[in-house]
Amino acid sequence: MFESLSQKLSGAFERLTRRGALSEGDVDEALREVRVALLEADVALPVVKDFIASVREAAIGEAVLKSITPGQMVVKIVHDHLVQALGGGAEGINLATTPPAVVLMVGLQGSGKTTSTAKIAMRLTRRERKRVLMASLDTRRPAAQQQLATLGQQAEVKTLNIIGGEPPLAIAKRALQTATLEAFDVLMLDSAGRLHIDDELMEEIAAIKTATKPIETLLVADAMTGQDAVNVAKTFQDRIGVTGIMLTRVDGDARGGAALSMRAVTGQPIKLLGVGEKLDALEDFHPDRIAGRILGMGDVVSLVEKAAENIEQAEAERLAKKMQKGQFDLDDLADQLKQLQKMGGIGDILGMLPGVAKIKAQMKNAKIDDKVIGRQRAILSSMTRKERKNPDLIKASRKQRIAAGSGTSVQEVNKLLKQHQEMARMMKQMGKMGQKGLMRQGIQSILPRG
């Protein structure tokens, strides 16, 4: 998300920060590039106008233009205004009410409402230890209720029993009664959607909202639809009233304009991001972190959180001890590649590191992506346990067998073995030097020779 916008803004600000002194004209030239970049990212025109006007007003002040680092000051002003445009501070799901807290999910058909309902329910169950009941109110879409029941089994979250022919309002009332009697903490209601907004849909949702009095009415919007998602959000806010927004499919939206427009157009915060199809592919929306990613400053906090969630402490400690002894076999390499994929792959991790926009572009040109990791894991899986423990056993005939078994080439097998040799050499060098030796001689002492 935001890749194209980030690249264009990085280019504009790189030119700006290279200059020593800045004139008003320099700032205007940079802001023109920012304006074009925002419009190309599908940000709503009124939002772009307000954003540029407020940034310009702050950026052409005497304190900025005559400061020691005027370029950096302008970048900071843009960052601060981006944070405000995205909503200021992070806002999670509000459950501060007498249980059961009702969360009503609304949106158009195909926006990912049902999957998002299950994602949130699973997170509340596992992270916050809440007892959650899910109920599907979608009686129009074929097998919609069965879909939620299946997702409930996968997420280990209870779903309301399905009664054929029961209308949506009656299901909502029965769900609320069940959640109350059985002492559930949260009731998630997955409402029906339509391919477009109509009066019948709005009346149905309004009736459900009146009957269940939800503390949260979350609009699920598809980020891939860009400006259409913003228009849908405005209509739902005007006619129903929503308390927050969840953007789905943000992993496939390189422009990100919907996220920048949502808050300004609806006045409601984006609370969650759907970043993939899996049930755990859910992120909190942090405006300051997102602004950092857009401007190429990275998001190290989110990266650390992601690592803490996906990397098992015992496994990390085991590997650390082996590294201290200078040991690193192909099984360890396989574990590292598996962890990398669990964390979202190379692209996701690089997107959270500061100043890597150029590196990402170079990697894309060199065709280094997550498919390479998948192929390397296939090669490692085609080896025997003895071969992974002792790579010296792998000669020509074994390489041919491994390549055939993994659907790769002997050249790819050789490349992986060379990569492992270099990593193992570095681990051995670090083990010999110890922490004090490494600090004394520097990182150059373990880098590849020649």
TrEMBL record:
List of residues binding GTP: 107-114, 190-194, 248-251
Localization: Cell inner membrane; Cytoplasm
Signal peptide stretch: none
Coiled coil feature spans: 297-343
Enzyme Commission numbers on file: 3.6.5.4
GO cellular component terms, A-Z: plasma membrane; signal recognition particle
Alphabetical keyword list: Coiled coil, Cytoplasm, GTP-binding, Hydrolase, Nucleotide-binding, Ribonucleoprotein, RNA-binding, Signal recognition particle
Topology class, membrane: Peripheral membrane protein
GO molecular function, one term: 7S RNA binding
General function of this protein: Involved in targeting and insertion of nascent membrane proteins into the cytoplasmic membrane. Binds to the hydrophobic signal sequence of the ribosome-nascent chain (RNC) as it emerges from the ribosomes. The SRP-RNC complex is then targeted to the cytoplasmic membrane where it interacts with the SRP receptor FtsY. Interaction with FtsY leads to the transfer of the RNC complex to the Sec translocase for insertion into the membrane, the hydrolysis of GTP by both Ffh and FtsY, and the dissociation of the SRP-FtsY complex into the individual components.
Protein name: Signal recognition particle protein
Biological classification of the source: Bacteria, Pseudomonadati, Pseudomonadota, Alphaproteobacteria, Rhodospirillales
